[in-house]
Amino acid sequence: MQQDSAIHISGLNKTYANGFGALSNINLDIKRGEIFALLGPNGAGKTTLISTVCGIVQPTSGRITVAGFDSAQQYRAARAALGLVPQEISTDAFESVWNTVSFSRGLFGKPRNDAYIQDVLKRLSLWDKKDEQIRRLSGGMKRRVMIAKALSHEPSILFLDEPSAGVDVELRKSMWAQVRALRDAGVTIILTTHYLEEAEEMADRIGVINKGKLILVEDKHTIMQKMGKRQMIFVLRQPLATLPATLHPQPLVLDDDGSTLTWTYDAQAEIDISAMLDQLQAAGIRPKDIYSRQSNLEEIFMELVEAV
């Protein structure tokens, strides 16, 4: 286990009574103070992994250490270091925001600390709603209350399971800013999300899980560099019916209406655009415009999942 690990997982397996293997030999170190995004299709094992780390689901085998505490032998200390925001919003609809968050703190045996609760509510833009009943809040505000509840006992690690589910774009952007602020305050964030632009925007590192197996853990920027593809798009002056035979050896694709040629290449490769332009010109093609694009995380994710 690394000294800077917030969570250390080794040889983790979970097989249910019906024989279904939900997790298979998971090995993972999550660093203190990072935002780690766990990605995977539905049924991949994301929620099972989170539930196992949080002590909600018992593993079949393996070891989990949370904030230096063994999750099996030192369960209370390990659980106290964790805050969990589940997908489902579950609160007392008729209770006030202040009472809900304060009560959650008491469940962990923490002494009353009004100043801390006030700070959490202000950081999450909930202070002006502190006396409102939960049922009167919007979906986005309820989601923030769930985060405030998870932070109420001052955990050093926060799990966010689909934090933006049901939240509009404006609130989602605001939530991203608040999550970054928590990270800057020293809280380790682990999030699962179906919004891959969310992971691309926020995460320091990314893990991809599929069919219960962790198939990739890597720094976000390294993933984009190592696995990303670049494309050069040539907009043609006149449509082509077919690609000239002299260009067949090149990785060029003519679109359906013949108006653009797309050249796809490795993002790390050194390319000679002038040589390609010379070949196009030799084939009688003079583009009227050229622009480039790089593959995003969603495209890389789909390629990884389909390969398993």
TrEMBL record:
GO terms for molecular function: ATP binding; ATP hydrolysis activity. This is ABC transporter ATP-binding protein. SMART domains: AAA (SM00382). It comes from the Bacteria. Residues 7-236 form the ABC transporter domain. Keywords: ATP-binding, Cell membrane, Membrane, Nucleotide-binding, Transport. InterPro entries: AAA+_ATPase, ABC_transporter-like_ATP-bd, ABC_transporter-like_CS, ABC_transporter_ATP-binding, P-loop_NTPase.
